[in-house]
Automatic annotation (TrEMBL):
It catalyses: chorismate = prephenate; prephenate + H(+) = 3-phenylpyruvate + CO2 + H2O. The lineage of its organism: Bacteria, Pseudomonadati, Nitrospirota, Thermodesulfovibrionia, Thermodesulfovibrionales. It comes from Thermodesulfovibrio yellowstonii. It is found in: Cytoplasm. PANTHER family: PREPHENATE DEHYDRATASE P PROTEIN (PTHR21022), PREPHENATE DEHYDRATASE-RELATED (PTHR21022:SF19). This is Bifunctional chorismate mutase/prephenate dehydratase.
Amino acid sequence: MENEKLQNLRDKIDKIDKEILKLLNDRAKLAIKIAEIKKTQGLSFYDPVREKNIINKILKLNKGPFSDEVIKTLFREILSATLALQESQKISYLGPEGTFTHLAAIKYFGSFAQFEPEDNIKNIFESVEKGITKFGVVPIENSNEGTVTYTLDMFMQYEVKIAGEIIIPITHNLLSLTGEKEKIKKIYSHPHARAQCREWLRKNMPDIPVYDVASTAEAARQASLDEDVAAIASEFAANIYGLKFVAKHIEDYKNNYTRFFILGKTFPNKTGSDKTSIMFSLQDKPGTLYNALKPFKDSGLNLTKIESRPAKMRKWEYIFFVDFMGHIEDEKVRKTLEEVKNYCIELVHLGSYPMFK
């Protein structure tokens, strides 16, 4: 009786699977027709605003038992696979394979995009500016370690736009080929990852030397070549490089997140929940920074980040980077920036993009 009941349930699942397959292919056929229309009209195949709206509508309909995060991941992959049928999306990211930037790129674009690793952040900016890749993914700030200043500096050299953002939790693990703590003679780590695990290393591996490498993925790659070597890296890297866990979640502070920018040649239309990024330089006079920031207060625009970097062209002059809530298409934003320009030597709109949720 139990076996018959089990078989009946499995038969129902098989029927649903067939229907899912049919619906997925029906959806793909419609997407291909849409792509043909976009091509004749010269429209972009990738529409992040449309994708965000699709996922938000689906999440509102979700009654479980799947969590919203699971549903979001499933539909992210459906959208990624559908876009791959329309146009190959080449995405450059800070490599090698298995970095947190690689993970952020997959979470944003889905695993069906074509990912191109780059050795450094500068190459990503250059690749996007020259149109070698459609988009690029770069780290901009970590909740514990602060701003990635090199990324900010690149905006002074390249004409690219910020087309989006994504924030992912950063968890570090101690990984090795064997998973045996006793065999470890040295550890490889990116300097930021080591700093985020300093106390754990002091308490648990006080006599084991730690060597800096260019990325957590490179640390994992090194560990995959030698049983005596361990790496501080992600679970994502462990899967890619065939490593086992020596210890999980060894970061000293658990609320550790990194924000990444999506670089492109253009930025998306407004969604109603957007951020705008600008950079500007000021005259070296008392009160100019106050005057440049006061219009934001007067208009009620919420600043979410302000950072200064040396201008590098002239000593003791600085470029200011500002993020605030709103989109350049908003009338209030346009009027505010017009007023801010009155106090600036130069003001550059870096992009307006959907706020990550």
